[in-house]
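// run 5 | inverse folding | seed 20
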């Protein structure tokens, strides 16, 4: 682990704590050279799960990439990082619980879109525009109309 201040590779762990609601560890570290303190986060890696892209290519599941795409949809929305991390954790848990070695990117997108629809309609529309590959304003309009329809209650 390189120091973000000076680049020196030797550091020591000052404090370790499990992350609440996530399978990870937060570590406070101190550089042996410049004494700069910084925080790292470690997560269980789903290195065996491959994501099947729409063009057929396969790549390893990357939680940081998923977080970035959700954050992009949530720009200037009242959605906390805890909520975003919770969505990602649900996706990871689903992959692990189902024992999947491969999962289509559309399935991951579907899980995210379902979660965003319940949390924030604007973030949902933003994410849906990429997920559903909208090509016209009419597609946006139809999706917004679907959101505005009252749910069937019995």
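// decoded
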């Amino acid at each position: 682990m390189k120091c973000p201040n000076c680049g020196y590779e030797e550091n020591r762990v000052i404090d370790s704590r499990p992350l609440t609601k996530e399978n990870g560890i937060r570590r406070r570290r101190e550089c042996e050279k410049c004494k700069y303190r910084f925080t790292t986060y470690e997560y269980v890696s789903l290195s065996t799960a491959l994501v099947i892209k729409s063009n057929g290519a396969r790549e390893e599941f990357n939680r940081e990439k998923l977080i970035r795409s959700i954050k992009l949809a949530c720009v200037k929305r009242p959605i906390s990082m805890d909520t975003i991390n919770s969505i990602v954790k649900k996706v990871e848990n689903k992959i692990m619980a189902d024992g999947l070695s491969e999962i289509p990117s559309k399935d991951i997108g579907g899980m995210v879109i379902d979660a965003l629809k319940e949390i924030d309609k604007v973030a949902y529309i933003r994410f849906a525009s990429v997920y559903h590959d909208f090509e016209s304003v009419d597609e946006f309009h139809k999706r917004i109309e679907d959101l505005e329809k009252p749910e069937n209650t019995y």
